[in-house]
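In this section we turn from sequence analysis to structure. A common task in structural bioinformatics is to predict how a protein folds when a small molecule is present, because the ligand can shape the pocket around it. The inputs are simple: the amino acid sequence and a SMILES string for the ligand, here adenosine-5'-triphosphate. Study the lines below before reading on.
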Amino acid sequence: MTDQSMNIYRESLRLLRPFWPITLAATIVGAIGGIATAWLLAEINRDLHSGQALTWQSILRFLTLCLLSTLGSAFAGIGNSILGQRLIGALRKDISARILAAPLAELEQQRSYRLMAVLTSDVDTVSAATFALSGYGVSLAIVIASFVYLLHLSALIFALAAVVTGLGVVINILARRAWQRDYEHVRTATDDLQKQFRALTEGAKELRLSRARRSRVHDLLLSGAADRITKLKTRAMGLFWIADTASSGLFFVAVGILLLAQNSLHLEPAVISGAVLVLLYARGPVGQIANGLPTMSQAQVSLRRIATLSADFADQDREIHRRLPSLAFDHDITLRGVRYDFTSDGATGFVLGPIDLTIHRGETMFLIGGNGSGKTTLIKLLLGLYRPTAGSILVDGTPLPAGAEDAYRQLFSAVFSDYFLFDDLTVADKASVAQANDWLDRLEISHKVTIRDGQFSTTDLSTGQRKRLALIHAYLEDRPIMMFDEWAADQDPTFRRIFYTEILAELKAQGKTLIVISHDDRYFHLADRVLKLDSGLIVDETTIVPAPATAPEMR
Ligand SMILES: Nc1ncnc2c1ncn2[C@@H]1O[C@H](COP(=O)(O)OP(=O)(O)OP(=O)(O)O)[C@@H](O)[C@H]1O
């Protein structure tokens, strides 16, 4: 076993471990029900051939076995339903927590549609298999107990039933293998489908504008993936029905052989009828086990996908949930020889740095440079979202201790150019709501948006207006350092001016350290320092000397 498959195996066990007790309990109860069913058949056969009137003991035994049989399968079913629901909840929470704790760079490498497919489709598939577990437990117990009864009736009949079942098992194993191979392709096609579903909503505008793109997405990519899944699943289902029919048909063959050979075998009628009864009854549970195999195969593939994702994010900084005390930042933050390398799998990628940079508390720094010069990458490093490939970050001259990344990140609030707009306030106390209302007024959107139950009443706004809401979130967080990535780019000229000359000035007056990515050279003079990046390096640094205040004119 390779290291990776060991990891996946270990991860699968870890994910399923909390559910062993309930699985075991449901299986034991189901097995009791199954054994009671087989016993019941034996009792019925005995009573039919006893030639005597039923005794109270027989009636009592019959009723007890009926009760055990029905209650056993009912309780096993309930147990497994609870297990299935808990499993869905636990897997979703566990994987989400790992995704939350994962470093941004690793998350960026995973495609979001793949994560969505694991969180929805794979989790559902695994839990569907657990719902079916009770059925398997009961069926398996019936089959085993039936075989014990057959052995008790006659070794020869037992051997005949064993051969028939063995053949059925082989047929089903072959079908299962074929399905398992196909299901890997089904899962890949499911990822493709998720990707195209995303395009349907996120690319709605582009798809309406371009007939060629629309037909490529719908007729080729989406339909292609959907058809591939249909074809593979239809083939697999066909295979399974053939396997199922063949294996259950074998039971009829066994019953036929018994009926034909009953005289030459010199077996009592009670033995023959008991065997026929059991063989015909066991056909159902055997079929149920065989029919459940595709679900089990799918669950195995899906569990492997869940475990792979979970293992990928296993060794991450879990301090996101540890709530370490916040870091103090009194004087400066320094990037010392910091580098970041996008190179992966030997392919050369963009390299930022080495960067040596000190940001002083209370200063306003503008970051400028052409597209792809590395501004956002530098910001992600500075904000602790990327771990430097080389070099270190110092807060007030002290290197950031290991495990303090999340505490460090709490020093910043930011509006990224690809920001996500949350529609609720993190803290919705009276003071925060009052502040938010104040800002809605100042940002001239109070006529559109109000705060209701700690939420913005709407986020269906223009691009520039939505960005104003993102700014309110950043303001309410009240962190010492604020970063704006081309915030003003989507604002009209008046608001752009208000942002640079009033909002930034006010935040600076409050003592905030401001980092502003900007292309608005009309306002560069408002910074304390302007840094220019090119090809991942700081190529220019200009300290802005404030113009001396002009003396009032003498009359
Ligand atoms: N996730 C990523 N994986 C690989 N390379 C990346 C990734 N993100 C950015 N890059 C590369 O890093 C370079 C710098 O990107 P970055 O986003 O930092 O530039 P920028 O100066 O912010 O550009 P813009 O002004 O267009 O936003 C780009 O040339 C890009 O190829």
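The longest strand covers residues 332-341. As an exercise, try to locate the residues that line the adenosine-5'-triphosphate site and compare them with your own expectations.
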